[in-house]
Amino acid sequence: MIGSEVYFTDFHTETDESLLKKMERLVKDAGIGDIRMEKKFVAIKTHFGEYGNLAFLRPNYSRTIADVVKDSGGMPFLTDCNTLYVGKRKNALEHIDTAYLNGFTPMTAGCNIIIADGLKGSDDIEIPIGGEYVKNAKIGRAIYDSDVIITLSHFKCHELTGFGGALKNLGMGCASRRGKMEQHSASKPVFMRNLCRGCGKCIETCGSEAISLNEGKAQLDTDKCVGCGICISRCAFDAISAKIDQSNDVLCKKMAEYAAAAILNKPNFHISLITDVSPFCDCHGSNDVPVVSDVGMLASFDPVALDMACADLVNEQPILHNSSAHLNKGRYKDVFECTQPTTDWRITLEHAEKMGLGTMKYELIKLK
Hints:
Elements: E1 4-9, H1 19-29, E2 41-45, H2 59-71, E3 75-80, H3 92-101, H4 106-109, E4 112-115, E5 124-128, E6 136-140, H5 141-145, E7 148-154, E8 156-158, E9 162-164, H6 166-171, H7 177-184, E10 190-191, H8 201-205, E11 211-214, E12 217-220, H9 230-234, E13 240-241, H10 248-262, E14 268-274, E15 296-300, H11 303-315, H12 335-339, H13 346-354, E16 362-366
Parallel strand pairs: 1-16, 2-3, 2-7, 3-4, 7-14
Antiparallel strand pairs: 1-15, 5-6, 8-9, 10-13, 11-12, 14-15
């Protein structure tokens, strides 16, 4: 065998088997049952989609995986961490409301929903990883406390990393708000006086005495600030944000190091669906038409091999003529560069391989 095993099946079905049953068969053939789950807390890491976006994976898929876990004696929960940006998922209450609005409920998804980094995005734990860029990754506590991690990823394009798959679901998705800040930013937080109410919550929580009030508005002493990002999660009025100034290349490498921290010493399994391959992340409140046709479902114990196989399968597809990628057809060497020309998706995979997360070499095992 050359490389890791990646199992694949397309979206064609016969009248006696639904896509959900086909997905169940896929993950079982890929070996999910080899993981000891009895009485174990199993985190199913997925993305609930920003409200208004319709490209995210339906909750029916989550329920299928939750049922497989329960059949193995495990205790599954759907999870994600709060967002760094200001949207409808920046704290646990809004995040769960958005999940419900998008169809994810304990009944539809087959298990409870837990926002892994807590109410304000500050409930995390630092995991020593000793990476080239990240020494201590800030991972959502519920993900850290879980015994097993399963990723269920919508494979799509991404404006910063080229595409989002299993590694992004792990690296960016499992990071708390300050963990996301560490990946996105090389600078200190930005304070917006026009939004500040002068409540002082950020001052109370700053461990380096870097924040003070000036004429009733919070201000930051950047010389004292250590860049922990806790103040961002404490502000209820969105007056503090991260400055998104990290280069895409460094972001990709930090994300790979965070992915290594998220699954450190944990049994893990990964599933990706290549469907509704939108040009942007599901974090946006809308989605454009797909750049390629639906391809299929994949599963593997190796997230690097899985992402590589997904990328290869997408690049085998013709670019749809009515998509944004079609405008650059022929100008760049693959679908992702046609969609997001400033990105290089290979960097994440190469660095993840270097971190020991898996291999870019794979054997594609096709199922009917």
